[in-house]
Specification:
435 residues, mainly alpha, 23 helices
C-alpha cells in the first residue's frame, strides 16, 4: 500500500512538472516533425498552464518550422507578465540557434532564429530588447553584404532598429574596402549597394561622413560617387517606413552638402539629392547654407528656385520671411513663376497663420520682391482687416521687372505695359475691402 502511494505521488509530480495535459520538452521536439505538430505547439505556447520555459520551447519549435505568424499572434494575445517571462526564456534559445559555426554561412535554421529574434523584440522588455539588438548587430556585422540578404527579415529592416549598434562594424568594413589596393589584375574591391544603404540607414553621423567622402571624391569605380549620395537620399529623404532614420545625423554635415551643390563636377542627381538632404537636416544647420544659395544662386534660374523651395522646407511657416528677404532684387520675376514656386509653396506650409504673420511683416521690407510677395500673399489668405496696410503701398513706384514674362513673341500692340508694385497693392486692397 505504501509503495502504491509513493508511486502515485511520483506520477503526480511528473504530471505537475510537465503540465496538466502531460506536455513536456520531449513532446515539443517530437511535434516539430509531425503533421499535427504545429497545432499542438500553438496550443502549448498559448497555454498559461505550462511554465515559461516549456512555452518558450514551443515558440522556438514553431519558428524552426517556419510558423512565425502564430508566434506573433500568441505574444500579441498573451498577458504582459507571462509574455515577459516566456520571451526571457525564448531569447537564449534563439540566439543559440542563430549562431552559425565559424567560417560557415548561416543556413535556414540560423536565419529562422535570427528572424524570430527580430519578430519578438517588439514584445520584449527594455533589458531583453537591448540584448536582442546587440546580438542582431553582431550577427549582421560578421559579413553584412552576405547576411543582409538572408532570411525573411532582410538586413536593411533590422538596421532601422539597431543601426547605431551596427554602425561601427559597417564603418570598419567600409574602411577596409577603401584601404584595400587593387589585386594583381588591377581589380578593385567594390562597394555593394547593400553596404552603402546599410551605412545610410544606420543613422550615424560618422557613417554619413564616410558616405559623403565617397560622394565627393573620385574613385576607380565610376558609379560609387553617385551611389553613395543616392544611398543617403533614400534613407533620409525618400524612405517612408517606420521607424524613421535619425535625421540629426545629417546636421554636422550641412556645410558639406553645400559643397556638393556648388561642385560643378557633380552629377545632377547628386546635386538634387544634396539639396534635399540639406533641407532635411533641419534648423538651424540648414538655414545658413540655403540662404547663401538664394542670395548668390550662380545666375541659374532653376538653381534659385530649388534653393527657395528647399529653404522654405528648412525654415518652416514661421520663418518664411527669411527666404523671401534673401531673394535677389536685381532679377526679373514673372508673376506666374513667383506664384508657382514661391507663393503657393509658402501657403502650403502649416500653420497658415504663421505664414500670414510673416507676410504682414514683409509689407515694410526694403526688398520689392518681399513687398509684392506680402501683398499677393495677403490677397490669398488675408482678411478685410489687412486692407489698410496693403493700401498703404498703393503709391509704391517699384517697377515689377519681368512681371508679364517674355513678350518678345507678342505683337507690340498687344504687349502688356510695365506695372508698378503700387498698382498691384491697390488691386489687392480693393479685393480685401470688398470681403
Amino acid at each position: 500500500m505504501l509503495w502504491a502511494m509513493r508511486g502515485f505521488a511520483m506520477l503526480a509530480l511528473v504530471v505537475l512538472a510537465s503540465g496538466c495535459d502531460g506536455v513536456d520538452h520531449d513532446h515539443i521536439d517530437k511535434w516539430r516533425e509531425t503533421e499535427k505538430g504545429p497545432s499542438k505547439l500553438k496550443k502549448a505556447l498559448a497555454s498559461s498552464e505550462h511554465d515559461a520555459d516549456l512555452r518558450a520551447h514551443a515558440a522556438q519549435a514553431l519558428l524552426q518550422i517556419g510558423e512565425y505568424a502564430p508566434v506573433n499572434e500568441a505574444f500579441t494575445d498573451m498577458a504582459a507578465s507571462e509574455r515577459t517571462a516566456v520571451i526571457a526564456k525564448l531569447v537564449p534559445r534563439l540566439t543559440k540557434d542563430a549562431q552559425a559555426p565559424e567560417g560557415q554561412a548561416p543556413g535556414r535554421l540560423h536565419n529562422a532564429a535570427k528572424d524570430g529574434l527580430f519578430d519578438v523584440r517588439r514584445f520584449a522588455d527594455d533589458a531583453t530588447r537591448t540584448s536582442i539588438d546587440e546580438f542582431l548587430a553582431d550577427w549582421l556585422g560578421v559579413h553584412y553584404e552576405d547576411r543582409t540578404q538572408r532570411g525573411r527579415i532582410r538586413g536593411e529592416q533590422i538596421v532601422r532598429h539597431v543601426g547605431k549598434k551596427l554602425a561601427p562594424k559597417l564603418l570598419s568594413r567600409a574602411r577596409t574596402l577603401i584601404a584595400t589596393p587593387p589585386d594583381a589584375q588591377g581589380r578593385i574591391p567594390m562597394f555593394s549597394d547593400d553596404l552603402l544603404r546599410g551605412l545610410a540607414f544606420a543613422g550615424d553621423p560618422e557613417a554619413v561622413e564616410l558616405l559623403l567622402d565617397l560622394a565627393m571624391k573620385d574613385h576607380a569605380e565610376p558609379t560609387l560617387k553617385r551611389r553613395a549620395m543616392a544611398a543617403l537620399y533614400v534613407a533620409y529623404v525618400d524612405d517612408l517606413e517606420e521607424p524613421k532614420v535619425d535625421r540629426t545625423a545629417l546636421k554636422p554635415h550641412a556645410a558639406r552638402f553645400l559643397e556638393v551643390i556648388r561642385d560643378g563636377s557633380q552629377d545632377g542627381g547628386s546635386v538634387n539629392d544634396a539639396f534635399a538632404l540639406l533641407a532635411t537636416a533641419g534648423e538651424p544647420e540648414c538655414e545658413g547654407p540655403l540662404l547663401e544659395l538664394i542670395k548668390a544662386p550662380d545666375d541659374a534660374v532653376a538653381f534659385l528656385w530649388v534653393s527657395v523651395q528647399k529653404g522654405l522646407i528648412c525654415v518652416g511657416a514661421d520663418d518664411v520671411a527669411k527666404i523671401v528677404e534673401a531673394m535677389p532684387t536685381g532679377w526679373e520675376y514673372e508673376r506666374g513663376i513667383l506664384e508657382k514656386y514661391l507663393w503657393n509653396k509658402m501657403l502650403s506650409l502649416e500653420p497658415k497663420s504663421d505664414v500670414g504673420k510673416s507676410c504682414r511683416a514683409l509689407l515694410g521690407s526694403d526688398s520689392w520682391v518681399a513687398r509684392v510677395t506680402a501683398v499677393e500673399c495677403l490677397g490669398m489668405i488675408g482678411s478685410k482687416g489687412d486692407a489698410p496696410a496693403v493700401r498703404a503701398l498703393a503709391g509704391d513706384r517699384a517697377m515689377l521687372k519681368g512681371w508679364w514674362g517674355d513678350q518678345s513673341e507678342v505683337p507690340k500692340k498687344d504687349r502688356r505695359k510695365p506695372i508698378a508694385l503700387g498698382a498691384v497693392a491697390q488691386e489687392v486692397a480693393e479685393k480685401l475691402e470688398n470681403m
